Amino acid sequence: MIKQLRKLIFLAVLPYLLVKQCDCNLHRVKPFSHVAKEIARYADVAKSIIDLAVNGKAQNRSYNRLADFTDTVGNRVSGSQNLDLAIKYVYNGLRKDGLDNVHLEPAKIPHWVRGKESAVMLLPRNHTLAILGLGSSVGTPVGGIQAEVLVVESFEELERRAGEAEGKIVVFNQPFVSYGETVEYRELGASKAARVGAVASLIRSITPLSINSPHTGWQDYEVGVRRIPTACITVEDAQMMGRMARRGQKILVHLSMEAHTLPDADSFNTVAEIKGKEHSEQVVLLSGHLDSWDVGQGAMDDGGGAMITWEALSLIKDLGLRPRRTLRAVLWTGEEQGGVGAAQYFQQHKANISNFDLVMESDMGTFAPLGLQFSGNARARAVMREVMNLLQPINTTALEDHGEGTDIYMWMDAGVPGASLHTANRKYFWFHHSEGDTMSVQDPLEMNLCSALWAVVAFVVADLEDMLPR
C-alpha cells in the first residue's frame, strides 16, 4: 500500500518536475536574439578601441615597438642567446607598460646550431649554391661530402629511381603547390633520401616566389633511419639542376655543414594579463611567438603577431577597460621547432581547461587584416559573427572556417574555441624563414588595423555575460 501511494504521488508531481527542468534549461541557454543585442551594445567600446589604435595616440605603436625590438635583438632561434635577450626585452617592456601579473613560465626547448655551411657545384660548371641548413640536421664529416647529384621532382619519382640513389646527393626539385602540401619535402626529404642510400639531400625552398634566396625551417628525421645532412637551396638552383639532369649532364656537388644539436636549453613563455573584474579565473588567451629562425629579423614570423598581442592589452589598458574575464597574452618560445613551448604550457594548464573561453594566435603575418579564422561549434560561431560585426568601421568582419596555429591547436583539439588572425597574406611565403623577413615587409597602418581587430575581439569575448558555447 505504501509503495502504491508513493507511485501515485510521483506520477502526480512528474509533470511539474519536467516543467521545472525545462525552465532551468531555458534559463541556462539564452535566446540568441538576447546575445546579439548584448554584443551590439559594445559598438561604442569597439569604436573607441579602433580610434585609439588607428587614429589616436597609439597609432603606429605596435609597428614602432616591433622595429625597436627587431633592430635591437635581431633574429631569435631556439636556444640562442638572442632568444634569451628577446624574452628579457619583452618582459621588461610588459612590466613598464603596467600590465597585470607579468611573469615567465619555464620551458625546455631544442638547441640546434647551424655553424658554417657551404655548397659548390663542381660539374658541369663551377657554381656556388646558396644554402640554408634545415633545423635538426646533422653536419657533414670533416672536409665535407663530394658526390654526384640525383634530381627528382617528387617522392614517387625517388621511389621509381631508388636504384640510382646509392651514394648520391638527392636534390628535390618539387613544384610549389601550397605551403601545407609542399612543406612535406622539407620535413621528410632527408629520411626519404636516406632510405634509398643517399648521402645528403638538398631541398628546393618552400616558396612560390624566389629572388635566389634559400628558405630554412625545421625537418624531422624518421626514427630508425640513418641521419644525413640536409639543407634548402634556392628555387633557381633547383630548377637549373633539373634542366641539367634532363640533358643528361653529370652534376657533382661538394657540401660542407657544421650543423649540430646541443642539449635542450632553458627558456620561457612570457605572460602578461589584464585581470578580470568578475571571473578572473576564466581566460581569453591571445598569443604570438617570440622565437624566429636565425636569418632575417623575424619581423613577420612572428614579431608582428607578438607585438599586436602586446598592443591589444595596451589599448584596453589605455582606455581604462577591465573585462569580466582575464585577458592573458602569452608570447611563446620554441614555436619553430613544433610548438614545444606551447605544448609545455598546455600540459601545465590543461587541468583548468574548462576556464579557457577562447584561444587566439597570430602567426601568419600582420598584413592588411580581413577578419578571423575560427574553430568552434555552430552557436559559438554565431556569437563570433556578431562580435566581428563590431569591426565594420575598418571592414575586417570576415569569419572564416578553421582557426589555426601551431601553438593553439591542442586547445582546439580539446574543444576550446580558437581563432587565428586572417590577413591578405599572399606575400607571406615569399619572405618566410629567409633573409627577407625584415621590417621592410611590415606596414604601420596594417599593424594598426591588426591591433584594433585583435583588441576588440579579445575584449568583447572576455566581457560577455557568458563564455562561448562549446
Q: Please tally the helical runs, counting DSSP H or I stretches of 4 or more residues.
A: 15
Which structural class is indicated by helix and strand composition?
A: alpha/beta
How much is the average pLDDT?
94
Shape: elongated
Low-confidence stretches: 1-27
Walkthrough of the structure:
Helices cover 39% and strands 24% of the residues. It has helices at 2-28, 32-40, 43-54, 61-73, 81-96, 155-160, 179-182, 184-195, 235-246, 299-318, 340-349, 378-389, 409-413, 428-431, 444-463; strands at 100-113, 117-123, 127-129, 131-133, 145-152, 169-172, 200-204, 230-233, 252-257, 260-274, 279-289, 325-332, 356-361, 369-375, 398-401, 418-423. Helix 12 (378-389) links the parallel strand 14 (369-375) and strand 15 (398-401). The protein is elongated and about 70 Å long. The protein contains 15 helices and 16 strands. The two termini are 48 Å apart. By secondary structure, it is an alpha/beta fold. The strands form two sheets. It has an eight-stranded mixed β-sheet with strand order 1-10-12-11-13-16-14-15. The chain has an eight-stranded mixed β-sheet with strand order 3-2-9-5-6-7-8-4, with helices on both faces. The longest helix has 27 residues, at 2-28.
